[in-house]
Amino acid sequence: MGTMILKVLSLRDEADGIRAFELADPAGGELPAFTAGDHIDVHTGTGLVRQYSLCNGPLDRRAYVIAVKREPMSRGGSHWMHDHLRQGDLVTIGGPRNSFPLEGDAESALLIGAGIGLTPVLSMARTLAHTGRTYTLHCFSRSAAHTPFREELSAADKGGQIFLHEGLEIDRQKSLLRDILAEPGKRALYMCGPMPFMEQVEQIAALAGWPTGSIRSENFGAAETAKCGDRHIEVVLASSGRTIIVPADSSIARTLIEAGVNIEVSCEQGLCGSCLTRVLEGTPEHRDTFLTEAEKADGTLILPCVSRARTESLVLDR
Amino acid sequence: MTHVAPKLDIELYDETLLIDPFEAFRRIRDAGPAVHLTRYGDVYAIGRYQDVRAALANPTVFSSARGVSLNPGTNERLAGTTLGSDDPGHARLRSIVSRPLAPDRLAELRSSMAASAEALVVRLVEQGTFDAVADMATHLPLTVVAELVGMPVEGRDRMLDWAAAAFNSMGPADSRLTIDALPIAAEMAHYAFDPALAAKVAPGSWADQLFAAEARGEITRAECGSLLTDYMAPALDTTIFAGSSAIWLFANHPDQWAWLRQNPEKLPQALNEILRLEGPVQQFSRYVTREVDVGGVTIPEGARALMMFASANRDERKWETPEKFDLQRRAGDHLAFGHAVHTCMGMNLAKLEVTALLTALLPRVERFELAGEPRRVPNNSLRGFAHLPVRVQ
Ligand code: HEM
Ligand code: FES
Question: What span is annotated as the signal peptide, if there is one (chain B) (predicted)?
Fold first, then answer.
């Protein structure tokens, strides 16, 4: 599970701002096995390590296929992937690892993916198809141009039902989700997408009577800061009034350090409490294991090395 | 393309080098991202900030489960400690050991610690001349370990020897310091594993809570013994050295002390700079589970990789004028407490202790002066003073 060096076999623009990379053994050998929902760590040339879900099916050991969305606010990983990585280049990767497993006994699954979050569920769909199980896959995106792997998705004979929902109004999307989630608990539900979308699904599912914990969603865990569906955050420093944009693929703490703000970090995993910061405005989304549940609920403290925001901006006591 | 690691023949664990290692650290950093220290067999030193940090964040390749020392005896002793394990087992042990070190529990200690530091400092300032190690920096850590960990009195007497030995025993097998330390470290382990101990520790103490966790079946008796050493070994010399090294830095840089007296709210920032330059823990090792590329050079599977915390903290690639003691520097991301999953568990406690001491000194001491020749302790993993005679005004 350490690192290996792979070659970019091919790259292809799959949708607006989304580029797919096929990474293969330079010597042409088979790659280590993986399972649906696995991700790999890509060591980008910026020094940042980024996690990307694998989107091909696990039977395909010829290459790892990842899809990378260019984050407009990013200065880091995704830009490097788009701007610097070319066919034939070598790149160091770690993994594959799984934080989003497909449970072995799911006879039939309900898969929901939105935007770039389609990548892990697509791999799950492929696995289910290979193993003779059934699935229904709902793909949400802003428009046809924003749907990755659209050609494949619309092709027939996928071993399951695939629905594309492109450019829906918010109310239409909600009522559709209510229909999709109308039969709670009947099938295993897996989803991945931007944070607000996942929250919406969770809310509707809860109202429809899905037991809490029955929904499996992509979560890279405390060890990594990037999570499928993260968006950029506006951070305002109370002492100076300065506004700093934290890109989707960097932590609040790292971005502030790079901007010259004095902030302490040690573990950068939400474990040690070094970076503890007071929140003056906005609502944190806690991802640490340091604060108590009561402190998390209170919302006046944040560990910016891992945690993000539910609101678009946060005012921090820095 | 990755390359064979450059080789250096440096006696990193030679006693004179242990006292003054920074030139050797620089040679290692300049030689490459990972450097084969041929003198010690399969040991690869990682000395640059970015590479140390990245390796610490990659515990599947840089594993702690076969110990973090350079000799088999100590690595065996470390089995079952938090320090010497990998996730997921490590996370389970850590969640138990770290309970009393949680911030809400520590907050309860703040005022008593401040009072204790103040009483001590008032007395020493009156005295005028004292040993900043024995008379001052030792006080809080020893009180903490004795009272909070809850060791019975007969165990307390040996505690300082055990702690020093635990760190010395991390060295290479043929080092005199290692050889002398092994039996003393073994004595500590023996004490921690003594079945009679459970009945003797102070009720409600950290040790008592471990025995309670054992009684509830959360950990085994063997784990309980190992976890006791997680409290006993790293809580003394580390913090004692941090406190006394701070005084040494201020004695040599009176302007910095004056600045801090004017800006006492900058104490947390100052503490980072102190730990960056004079971090007590110099390096620990990892077992390399598979061949790995570090900054373009290869470390082979089965090697030992040295995580050089103290070298990283002086890496000119990361820090501007790294040798300079500058309290206004933003040193918040130093590696003196490590990084990632094994980040020091006692960090907040150690900071609380050193902060209490410096807070008591700030209003009472205008300047520190050396009142004799300071003497450093050679130790295979630590940096600090045995004696530091100072005079205060
Ligand atoms: C200034 C004082 C201290 C310094 C510089 C320091 C330094 C460190 C370092 C560098 C590590 C990382 C080891 C590694 O990565 O292999 C560590 C781990 C650890 N420290 Fe400290 N330490 C200090 C004080 C303390 C205190 C007071 C305690 C106990 C109450 C403590 C308990 C521990 C434990 C249990 C670990 C292992 C954590 C784990 O493996 O998850 N330390 N310390
Ligand atoms: S740096 Fe450790 S919790 Fe943020």
Answer: none
Q: Could you give the domains of chain B?
A: 3-156+234-392 (1.10.630.10)
Task: Read off the pLDDT of residues A114-136 as tens digits, 9 standing for 90 and up.
Answer: 887 888 788 888 888 877 788 88
pLDDT per position as a tens digit, A175-220 = 899 999 988 877 888 888 877 788 788 888 888 888 766 777 764 3
Q: How far is A140 from chain B (nearest CA, A)?
A: 35
User: How far apart, in whole angstroms, are the C-alpha atoms of residue A272 and residue A270?
Assistant: 6
Kindly report the protein residue whose alpha carbon is nearest to atom 3 of ligand 2: A270
* Separation of alpha carbons A149 and A136, rounded Å: 17
If we measure between CA atoms, which residue out of B259, B309, B255, B316 comes closest to residue B286? B309
Does the CB of B104 have a partner CB in chain A at under 8 Å? yes
Burial state string for A57-92 with b = 16 or more CB within 10 A and e = fewer than 16: bbebbebbbbbbbebeebbbbbbbbbeebeeeeebb
Q: Which fold has domain A233-316?
A: Ubiquitin-like (UB roll) (3.10.20)
Name the packing angle between helices B347-361 and B237-252 (round to 10°): 40
If we measure between CA atoms, which residue out of A247, A305, A77 comes closest to residue B57?
A: A305
Class of domain A108-218: alpha beta
CB contact under 8 A, A272 and B337: yes
For residue B68, the ligand 1 atom closest to its alpha carbon is 16
User: Does the structure show a pLDDT above 50 at A223?
Assistant: no
Task: Specify the fold of A3-98.
Answer: Elongation Factor Tu (Ef-tu); domain 3 (2.40.30)
Q: Compute the C-alpha angle B382/B386/B392, nearest 5°.
A: 120
Q: pLDDT at residue B385 above 80? A: yes
